[in-house]
Specification:
T-fold, 7 helices, 18 strands, alpha+beta, single chain, nine-stranded antiparallel β-sheet, three-stranded antiparallel β-sheet, 326 residues
């Protein structure tokens, strides 16, 4: 297909395609196969827009230019301002468990390039345990951004989910059909919900083919997100690292849970809560309860907990074996 898209195997009533995007995998599903092409075009536009705004790995992205700018105040585009505003909102809402100032900690952990290029980083300095500077030190007034010198921003916890929401909305509007967009485990839907909902398979790794233990659910909410310490992991100085940084320590989160899946009104909200649940560890269920969120939590030993009315149907009983570094 054009644009690097590959058609997914046919499913009754659903057509779809996938391609690599944003360092992960993009999938677009649509209820009217005749309208797949315009849906893919809209998804392509959103992916390109967000990549150009918020990628840490493109030196020409707006975020990279902001991070390399030594001035304490800079003007940003409306697009980047919108993504920053969402990140700061959810930082405040999660009591700082989400924090866009973890950029330097991610670099220290070795996440300094696209995940597909990561590997052993021998001979590098020891991983520091310095807390993140803190989201409260970032100010955004309209499109004027203020932050202390040296603060490196990262929007990985929110920008991809915001892209999924936007892509699903625009794809549904362009096609007139029900659409689902998945960006690496961040799922957004738009348009009329198909009869019985969207069938979604939940595993530790969104790239799984359905053979690993997990749960199959019918998605009726507009957004779902799965965050995990099992995927996007790598070795640094003999230590297993992952991309979910605890801003309180500046190190990869080492909490009670290894995977969290949350449903919400938007993919962005679901992603913010799933990420905060993993970082929050023992406080995850209290946090989710504050938002009335339903969630599926997987502990480090593979034990599964259904929270806030999450259904137990479709859940396999055999736990996943524990994996080192989870």
């Amino acid at each position: 297909m054009d644009g690097g898209w590959t058609r997914l195997p046919p499913v009754p009533g659903v057509s779809g395609a996938w391609r690599p995007a944003l360092g992960t995998t993009a999938r677009v599903l649509i209820s009217d196969g005749h309208q797949l092409a315009p849906a893919l075009r809209e998804a392509d536009r959103v992916i390109a827009e967000v990549d150009g705004l918020a990628s840490r790995f493109r030196p020409d992205s707006e975020l990279s230019r902001v991070n390399s700018d030594p001035r304490p105040e800079v003007s940003v585009s409306d697009g980047l301002a919108g993504l920053l505003a969402e990140a700061l909102f959810w930082s405040r809402a999660t009591d700082g468990l989400l924090d866009p100032t973890v950029g330097a900690a991610l670099l220290a952990a070795g996440y300094d390039r696209d995940f597909s290029q990561l590997g052993e980083h021998a001979g590098t300095p020891a991983v520091p345990s310095t807390p993140a500077p803190g989201w409260h030190r970032v100010r955004l007034e309209g499109t004027l951004l203020s932050r202390p010198p040296g603060v490196l921003l990262d929007l990985g916890a929110t920008a991809k989910a915001a892209a999924a929401d936007s892509a699903a909305s625009r794809a549904a509007a362009a096609s007139g059909a029900a659409c689902l967009v998945s960006l690496g485990g961040d799922i957004a839907t738009a348009g009329p919900v198909p009869s019985g909902g969207w069938t979604v398979r939940i595993e530790d790794d969104h790239r799984g083919g359905g053979d690993d233990p997990g749960q199959t659910v019918s998605l009726l909410a507009r957004g779902m997100a799965t965050s995990s310490t099992v995927v996007r992991s790598w070795i640094r100085q003999g230590m297993t690292m992952h991309h979910l940084i605890d801003p309180r320590t500046g190190r990869p989160a080492q909490g009670r849970w290894r995977t969290a899946t949350v449903v919400a009104d938007t993919c962005l909200q679901a992603n913010a809560l799933s990420t905060a649940a993993l970082v929050g560890g023992d406080g995850a269920e209290d946090l989710l309860g504050r938002f009335g969120a339903a969630a599926r939590l997987v502990a480090a030993d593979g034990r599964v907990v259904h929270h806030g009315g999450w259904p137990s149907q479709g859940e396999e009983l055999a736990p996943l074996p524990s994996r080192a570094g989870c």
